[in-house]
Amino acid sequence: MKHIAVIGAGTMGNGIAHTFAQSGFKVQLIDISDASLKKGLATISNNLDRMVSKEKISEADKKTTLDHISTFTSIEEGVKNADLVVEAATENIDLKLKIFKQLDEACSPETILASNTSSISITHIASVTSRPSQVIGMHFMNPVPIMKLVEIIRGYNTSDAVTNTIMELSKTLGKTPTEVNDYPGFVANRILMPMINESIETLYNGVAGVEEIDTVMKLGMAHPMGPLQLADFIGLDVCHSILQVMHDGFKNPKYAPCPLLVNMVRAQKLGVKSGEGFYDYSESRKAEKVAKQFAK
Prior knowledge:
Blueprint: E1 3-7, H1 11-22, E2 26-30, H2 34-53, H3 59-67, E3 69-72, H4 75-78, E4 84-87, H5 93-106, E5 112-115, H6 122-126, E6 135-140, E7 149-154, H7 160-172, E8 176-181, H8 188-204, H9 210-221, H10 227-234, H11 236-250, H12 259-266, H13 283-295
Parallel strand pairs: 1-2, 1-4, 2-3, 4-5, 5-6, 7-8
Antiparallel strand pairs: 6-7
């Protein structure tokens, strides 16, 4: 494989594009607007700058990585010559089905179609294409350039050849691919999301405060980040969507989103992306932190 198309220039999409480009692949990054693409490229450039400052890569490596990425606002144009397409759009089943129908029509018959979905059925996504044996899940972890795991999800019809190809491809990116079967939430989120939801329930029921809950899980369970802070970084809307997918898929009340999570999403308190979730990420809060550091 030489040419990789990535659908979506948001947090996951630009991270996936960055990772492939840094590994020497030609990347066609696709989004619906030039503004989104410029923002995605700026994020990649900033992340590469941090790697340069830490002497993990050189300035020449940064330039080469950015030169490997071209941008498109048209799926039809962006997927030309693509050996693999990785879809990293919003976690919305209707949107993903629409995109995969377009990809099936626009891509060559040999192209493998992958989704970065964190919970939605690969079998369902594949069903809207004429190539279900060539549809697979590649669930990268955030931040993509740093996290080693790629959850490889086989749909009901995904072929052994495609699975083996994607497993080996993931290794060339310096990742550790782990094969799982196609059930709601797969492995990562089937275990993680109920824990996050139960943490929110614990807060909702007044058992303890935000920092107290996170402290117990960090110091008592050796988690690098507390579940409420992690939810903020994932995005509370994303957590809500994944829980809904699992609730619908398993028909089990234990996956029902906590009422507090539902209300926070309705109020657009989505975590880091909105500036406020369980913690405050606003500019005023950042300024306050800087002031305290100087005061010390």
